[in-house]
Amino acid sequence: MNKQQYAEYLRSDHWREVREIKLRSANFICELCDGRVGDGRLDVHHLSYERLGHEMESDLQVLCRPCHKRVHSAWYKPKNKGTGEEEGGFTYAWETFARFHEFQERARTQGWKRD
């Protein structure tokens, strides 16, 4: 699926329904910061694209805009203005992303709750 097809999918009735179900299941609260960071605008982030169009609830995560940006910044490191090279590189980005999801899974399985 290319970027245009993905953008079209995100505008589809099917995606709107899947997104709404996930938002409701998360009680319209960011699953990373428990609503402490963002301004109330929420995104539904794909943890996996394997079942795109047939997503399971576990493939998705509700994130406020700042947390969503943080998650993506773990994958897409900014370019160094002097050299044009990525700062940190893919290995660092992957390790950061993996630690983030490991922390989330630990929080979920140990029942950590917002104060």
Q: Helices and strands, in N-to-C order?
A: HHEEHH
As a percent range, the share of helical residues equals 40-55%
- Identify the strand order in the major beta sheet: 1-2
Rg over CA atoms: 16 Å
Count structural domains. 1
Please describe the structure with a list of short key phrases separated by commas or semicolons:
115 residues, 9% strand, single chain, mainly alpha, two-stranded antiparallel ribbon, 2 strands
Fold blueprint:
Blueprint: H1 3-10, H2 13-25, E1 42-46, E2 60-64, H3 65-75, H4 89-109
Antiparallel strand pairs: 1-2
Helix pairs in contact: 3-4
Describe the structure.
- With 115 residues, this protein is mostly helical.
- The chain has one domain.
- It contains 4 helices and 2 strands, in the order ααββαα.
- The chain has helices at residues 3-10, 13-25, 65-75, 89-109, and strands at 42-46, 60-64.
- A two-stranded antiparallel ribbon has the order 1-2.
- α3 (65-75) crosses α4.
- It is globular, with a radius of gyration of 16 Å.
